Amino acid sequence: MELNELKIIGPEGQPEELIVELLIQGLIDAVVEEWTDA
Amino acid sequence: MSAEPIKCLIIHTGAPANLFRNLMALRAVKQLYPQLELHLLVSEKSFDLAARVSWIKTVYPFAERSIKEAAESKTNSRPQMIQELASWLRPLVQAEWSFLVNWSFSSSSSYLSTLIPAEVKLGLIRRDHSGIHCADDWSLYVSSVVHLEVSQNIHLTDILTTQFLTALQIHVGDPTERTDSSVTSKNFFRINDQFLSNLWNYKNAQRRWITIYACKDPLNIDVWLSVATKILKSNPEINIFWIGTPEQNQKLVNAKIDDQRVSIIDSSETFDLIAACIARSQWVLSSNPYAYHLASLLGTRVLALFRKYSALTSSGPYGNGHYCMILGDQPEKDLAEKILKAWTFAQNEWSSNRLDPGQAVYRSRIRSSVEGGGVIYEAFGNEGLTISKWNALVAGQIARAWFCGWIAPVGQDLKRNQLSPSLLSELRVVQAAVPDLVRNIERAIAYASLIRENCRRLKSDKVMKLSDRKEVEQLGLNIQDIEQQMIALGSTHPSFQIFANMLRVMMHNIPGKSLLEVSQGTIEIYKRMAEGVQLLTRWLNHSLSLARPMSLREVQSKEENA
After folding, report:
1. Span A8-27, mean pLDDT?
2. Does B180 have pLDDT greater than 70?
3. Strands B361-366 and B208-213
4. Is B106 an interface residue toward A (CB < 8 Å)?
5. pLDDT at site B539
6. How do beta strands B361-366 and B323-326 pair?
7. Choosing among B100, B119, B128, which should be mutated to test the A contact, i.e. which has the most A CBs within 10 A?
8. Do residues B526 and B437 lie in contact, with contact meaning Cβ atoms separated by under 8 Å?
9. Do B81 and A28 touch (CB under 8 A)?
10. B122-131, B257-266, B470-479, B491-500: the lowest-pLDDT one
11. What distance lies between CA B364 and its chain's CA centroid?
């Protein structure tokens, strides 16, 4: 699936302000920071 | 109310122990709104157990470990990882959720809840470029009060139940029928307990079993070994499921405890086996949340151990008749004896068993809705109320007043004999600081009102006369100054911490973008602060008046009116 097919609606209905790629990038960084095997 | 299925996605990427606790909230909501179609997005660690809940329609595993490994190994390029995650997200994004409830309160979950569209979102989300935001009031409370260990007494299961139910009531309508059926059950999970059933012969079934869950317990293992030895010695009818790590289990073997009466289980065994052992036990003894939340869910009684009171009130074992002991700073050499005493007392409260003086033991009780509902932990004996516990009591009432509109009778759960002279002198210090706090709140409301009036006069937020701009800026700085003073007050006195923390997070979450919306939002936030301070004042006055010397007639008349 191409990134631009991933249509999202932001919490305030502003998809133009929420760039999917940046959000997924943020998701990866947050997982790297938070996840532990504990 | 629509009988059509309502599709809800619950994001729960936290620890399995928290999932056990939150499943009770979800069960309570499902009982009231049976038309909910519940789907869970969980971390891989929780997948097995979530998949065993019959009323959950789908469980999506979130592969955190693989994501972390891939990100760190550099074998996959970032663009490739992003594409793979986008593909994984596709069914979730296209599913058309009515409700998305993020119960993880983590940064990663806030990205997930933003990426997945839903008509109504609860919990943490991301907004614009300003980071994490709370989509609802109860999330504000969890983020700023519960997770920062501010003294408060509302259990997380109750908070999450209320959060979800409130949203459902607003968007779906009242539940069709009330139900009082229990949310816990021995059959909460569809577990395969064939292995244990094969061993469960007549002899075993005749005995009483308890589980000691020692795995990942911060207590020294010798304490649990000593507890197990003492229990076996003084209770010949009891057998023990001992659940520990291989090293802990080896210690038990070396200790040569009666192996006929102890079944040793490796904590890495299947969820089915661990759950089956706990379900067959009459008691679970542990300070590990995994064990006591699972036991609560399965309706097995618990003796749970806590270091701090605040951890008990927000996340102790849920349900009626569980016992909790606060360890505090007691030396470890005395703990085994004290644990045994608490457990013996818990089994036979009415007998002659007595707790040690000053031993902090609590019993859980679900309050009736007239009393405000939810679980509370009642202390045994004449519990001296500390300022921290008094704060917890009042913070809970303030939160209920803010978010439920329900105000408990002032003084509920407060008894005259709990008020010590040291507590009273601390309350007087708090009382003396209240007028300054009230003045600050009134000033903030006045400044924000002036900004609002200016905005109404102005044609644009962006283009204005230099003098107007300077005036608005100065008013904004004044409000910031007040916010800083309130935060400083919160750090000096714990009774004001709830206001400081809530103010900071609420101001960060202020809705709207225009100056007019922000000023209106600021007024509403400070009005809410004022309501909270008013309630705090009523509790202060009540507590201080309760302690004043009274004639016998006054006492009798107060008791009659209560």
Report:
1. 64
2. no
3. unpaired
4. yes
5. 95
6. antiparallel
7. B128
8. no
9. yes
10. B122-131
11. 14
